[in-house]
Structure formats: C-alpha cells, structure tokens
C-alpha cells in the first residue's frame, strides 16, 4: 500500500493531461500511486495516457458521470491513508505533494490541506489560496484574480480546499462520507468542506505547495450545464447543511446573492439553464430536508462556530491565526 493515492478525473483533457502527469511524476515525493478516472473521453486522451504514462492506473467510465461520482470511484480503488485530488488542467511545482502530505502528518486536527493556486497563463496572478464561505453562504476562491505579492504566504486555517488540487485524510471520508454524487459537479467540494467543519475537522492552507491552474478549461465546453448545476447546487448546499437559525439570520444576504448571480447568468443568455436549475432544486427539497436532520444530529461543533466561518472575507488578515509557520 502506498502512503498517498493521487486521483485525477479526466474528460477530453488531451490539451492538459501531459503537463499535469508530467509534473506529477517529477514530484520529490514518490510514495504514491496515480489513478486516472476517465469520464468517457472521446479525444484520445485516455489512449495517450496509456501509451505514455504506463504507471498510471486507469479506470474508464462509459460516460460523463460528473466530478463527484468519478472521484468517489477513484477513492474506493485505494486504501492509502492520504488522498490527493487533481484536476487534469493542473501543473504542480516539484514539492507540492510532499509539502501537502507533511502538513497532514504534523497536524492531526487537519482533515485536508489547501494549496496556493496560481493562474497557469499569468503566474503572477492568484487563482485561489483556499476557499472561503461568505456571509451569503456562497463559496469563493480566496484571493482570486489578485496580483501575488506575498499576501497569502502565511500558513493558516481556511474553510476548505479547492478539490481540483487538494489532499485529504482518508479518515475524513470514513467519518463523514464521500462527495455527494447528486451534485454531479460544482459545490460538491464545498458540501464536503462544510461536513468536514461540522464534523470537527480543520483545513490547513499550505502556501509552500504551489500549483498552476487553467481555471474552467473543461467547463468552457459545457457552459449551459455548468450554469444549471451552479444554480441548483448553491440552493441544495444550503438546504442540506446549514443550521436553520443561520439560514434565517442570513436569508436576505442569501437571496440577494443568488438573485444577483442568476440575473447575471440570464443576461449572458442562460435564462433557460437558470430556470432548469431552480426547478431541479425544488424537486430535491424533500430529500435535502430529510438528510439535513442527520447532518445536524452528527454535528460536533456549535452553530456559533459554523457562523464564525462565514464572518471572514477574502483578505489574508481576516482568518483566525494560531497555526505555526509552514
């Protein structure tokens, strides 16, 4: 058994996968296996991986099953104590995996680690320095679009990692379950982050672990579906996870942020996708409300702690300190 399993979900990633896997096999950390879960690619990228990266274990799915389902299939293929997730449009610096795993080893309270993600095409621009949860209970990539001048170079707690470049402790999945496959894609990692936090786990941001991300490289080929899923899942996430008292207190902000986003999508010609996402969310309300009872019953932290996670914005000084330098 290897110490870490690296799982990559691929969908027609011919333009990206060589760079991703090449950087992965140049890592200073080698105690890992690589599992590529292919979501029904038709561009030859799967054959390319088989020819050029024979050490990669390939799991081929017949169709696009979504990020959550494909990732879960990869996780159950391994018993490694650490699970690294990578998008196929990621390039890693050589010590990325070593630094991420070392932090989990040294911080038993951490269920996952988030890294410093930079823009692949303009490497002085931040893509994400961990994910944050806003007062409107929406997810944001901390620092996204900012010039990188070291403002996120301090190790810290964050709400969660972007699942496109993250390492998780297997115990997290054993305790709180896997990615919710009903989400398909979008908010599935935020849903997991919320359940991690509710279960008493922390998430550590590791600025010394750096990668480069072509954000949206796969999504650009399926914009209508992406809008529908974002609309639907941003509703389901709240109904499934957030304590009732918090929903009531934050309701004006929740409604304002969602309506603003939906109006913006509609102005770009995606009105039908917005309406479809809303309708699908309404259809799933009963099962979300039923499931939230179990989630709230298993919560190991107070409502006050959950609400404190939403008080912080995207500036590096607004997150609570207390971790040692990494």
Give the key terms.
326 residues, alpha/beta, Spore Coat Polysaccharide Biosynthesis Protein SpsA, Chain A, 2 domains, 10-stranded mixed β-sheet, two-stranded antiparallel sheet, 11 helices
Cα gyration radius (Å): 19 Å
Number of strands: 12
Distance between the termini: 28 Å
Give the uncertain stretches in residue-range form. 313-326
Task: Tell me the CATH architecture of the largest domain.
Answer: Alpha-Beta Complex
Listing every helix as H and every strand as E from the N terminus to the C terminus, the arrangement reads EHEHEHEEHEEEEEEHHEHHHHH
Helix/strand/pairing class, anyone? alpha/beta
Q: Write down the CATH class of the largest domain.
A: Alpha Beta
CATH topology of the largest domain: Spore Coat Polysaccharide Biosynthesis Protein SpsA, Chain A
**Overall form:** globular
**How many strands, which pairing sense, and closed or not: the largest β-sheet?**
10 strands, mixed
Mean pLDDT: 92
User: Hey, roughly how much beta strand do the residues contain?
Assistant: 15-25%
Multimer state: single chain
The percent range for helix content is: 25-40%
Count the helices. How many? 11
How many structural units, i.e. domains? 2
CATH superfamily of the largest domain: Spore Coat Polysaccharide Biosynthesis Protein SpsA, Chain A
């Amino acid at each position: 058994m290897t110490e870490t399993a690296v799982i990559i979900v691929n969908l027609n990633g011919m333009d990206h996968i060589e760079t991703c896997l090449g950087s992965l096999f140049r890592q200073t950390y080698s105690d890992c296996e690589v599992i590529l879960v292919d979501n029904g690619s038709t561009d030859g990228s799967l054959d390319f991986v088989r020819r050029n990266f024979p050490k990669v274990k390939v799991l081929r799915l017949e169709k696009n099953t979504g990020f959550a389902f494909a990732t879960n299939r990869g996780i159950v293929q391994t018993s490694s104590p650490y699970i690294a997730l990578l998008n196929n449009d990621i390039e890693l610096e050589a010590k990325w995996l070593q630094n991420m795993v070392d932090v989990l080893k040294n911080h038993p309270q951490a269920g996952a680690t988030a890294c410093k993600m930079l823009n692949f095409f303009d490497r002085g621009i931040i893509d994400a320095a961990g994910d944050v949860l806003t007062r409107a209970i929406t997810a944001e990539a901390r620092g996204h679009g900012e010039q990188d001048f070291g403002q996120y170079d301090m190790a810290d707690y964050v709400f969660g990692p972007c699942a496109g470049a993250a390492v998780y402790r297997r115990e997290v999945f054993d305790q709180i379950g896997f990615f919710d496959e009903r989400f398909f894609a979008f908010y599935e990692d935020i849903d997991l982050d919320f359940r991690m936090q509710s279960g008493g786990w922390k998430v550590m941001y590791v600025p010394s672990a750096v990668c480069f991300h072509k954000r949206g490289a796969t999504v650009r080929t399926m914009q209508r579906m992406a809008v529908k899923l974002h609309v639907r899942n941003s509703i389901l996430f709240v109904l499934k996870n957030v304590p009732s008292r918090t929903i009531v207190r934050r309701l004006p902000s929740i409604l304002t942020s969602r309506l603003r986003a939906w109006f913006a999508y509609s102005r770009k010609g995606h009105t039908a996708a917005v309406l479809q996402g809303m309708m699908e969310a309404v259809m799933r309300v009963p099962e979300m409300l039923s499931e939230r009872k179990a989630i709230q019953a298993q919560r190991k932290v107070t409502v006050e702690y959950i609400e404190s996670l939403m008080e912080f914005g995207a500036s590096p000084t607004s997150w609570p300190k207390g971790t040692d330098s990494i």
